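Researcher: Structure for this, please.
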Amino acid sequence: MSVDLSFFRSQTSQRLRAMGRAEDVLLILESRGIEVPEATRERIMTCTDLDTLRTWVIRAVHVEAAEKLFVADEA
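Model: Predicted structure, token format:
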């Protein structure tokens, strides 16, 4: 008997993973006391690229302002 794993490769699954990773970025920034402007919050929450979100999670640990997530050499 085989198990159907197609859900884990589906677009819905990808979106759910991206949403979770975006929430992680915001959680890190907020726990560090960094204000997240609405436009930045929206950019983070609407991103669906898991590699980009992974990069932002790593940068969120180091940046001094939320907008600096998007600048490669600020990390």
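Researcher: Any notable elements?
Model: The chain has a mean pLDDT of 87. The chain has one domain: 18-74.
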